[in-house]
Amino acid sequence: MDEILKPKLSSTIGMLLVGVFLTWTGFSCATLLGNIISIIPGIFGLLGFRWVIIALAMLLSRNRLSIRISTEGIELPTGTPFRANSPKLHIPRSNIKSIIKHKSLRRRGIEIIKEDGTKAFIQIRQYCAIDHFRKLYSEMAINTAYGVSKNKPIDADAIRKDSNES
């Protein structure tokens, strides 16, 4: 059984609505002014139109931007919403050493540490809550909970040993 996490709609819908508002306000003010000063609202109108295009592209590519959690591992999206056939990064369950909640001033999310020491960062808050992702991964891929402490990393090696013994 696979769990598929799609990007949240709230930020995309918000971007679409703000883009429509900026487009309408900018272009209507530019046509009302009708002189050289109308360039400034026209720029806001173009910015809003760009946001509308990006939001529509994100809505159309929502399935491609999804994260899949399964017993084989985690499949992450790569690329941008405009790229038609962007490949997915598959991290096998056997290569995942630990999953750590990462919080700093610049970003919040999940860091997947692989066996070779490389790290993959996911801004998971655009898909679900951080603790919900950790819970899903521990239920789907490892079949056990990650512990009581929220900052405790999921140690996949110890859990794999436990699951192999039973």
Features:
elongated, alpha+beta, 166 residues, 42% helix, 4-stranded antiparallel sheet, 2 domains
| Topology order in helix (H) and strand (E) letters | EHHEEEEEEHEH
Q: Which whole number gives the mean pLDDT?
A: 77
- Share of helix among residues? 40-55%
Spatial order of the strands forming the largest sheet: 1-2-3-4
Radius of gyration: 21 Å
Oligomeric state of the chains in view: single chain
Quickly give the structural class.
alpha+beta
Descriptive notes:
- This protein has 166 residues and is α+β, with helices and mostly antiparallel strands.
- The protein folds into 2 domains: 3-60; 73-165.
- Helix content is 42%, strand content 22%.
- The chain has helices at residues 9-33, 39-60, 130-142, 156-165, and strands at residues 3-5, 67-69, 73-77, 88-92, 96-103, 108-114, 119-122, 154-155.
- Helix 1 packs antiparallel against helix 2.
- The chain starts with a strand and ends with a helix.
